[in-house]
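Known limitations

Structure tokens in this collection are predictions and should be treated as such. Users comparing against experimental data should check residue numbering before alignment. To illustrate the layout, the record for MBL fold metallo-hydrolase is reproduced below. The input appears on top and the generated tokens appear beneath it.
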Amino acid sequence: MRLTKFAHACVRLEKDGKVLLIDPGTFSEDAAFEKADAVLVTHEHPDHVDVERLRGLQVPVFTTAGVAAELNDERVTVVSDGQSFDAAGFAVRAYGKDHAVILPELGVPCENIGYLVDDAVYHPGDSFTQPDREVHTNLVPISGPWFSVAPAVEYARSIKAEQTVGIHNALLSDIGLGMMERWIGEAGGRPYHGLTPGQSLEIN
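Generated tokens:
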């Protein structure tokens, strides 16, 4: 399976001629959407879902009730914590239900579902929800209004993964990106890959 990172939190997974797209948001390049066979969306914030471009894909979408209401399309399937399903030949399991808190007085902003794909790649969306098993590649958010360093490092340490890949990084300058990659890479205790948009990894 090949993993290709695009801007911010968007990731493409490819295997056996099929493409699974995760969190194609308004920051995502058009190339991310090309030939997608199914889409997973973690939550309704526009940096994770571009509603207009997603409507144009005409492929199955698996997501939260909030995103489903925005898309208002029969191709959309609402999923919830603990549910397992097939998406274009990829085995997917859903984890969690809450977006990380940005400000305490605002409470939980919305529902958020993390996805484990083929028991190999885990995308948490905007949360530090952990899967209940080991994974090959853990996608670790490294910036955002809800983000802080200590929980991110603990999240990277806690999940038994062969490697980590930084995501959710469009808000960082080059200096900030380098700083956060050092924190997550060195303190997180797992081999770390800071992929730029368009770069890929092979997941064995």
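For this record: The mean pLDDT is 95. The helical segments are 30-33, 51-55, 65-71, 149-158, 174-187. Please report discrepancies through the issue tracker.
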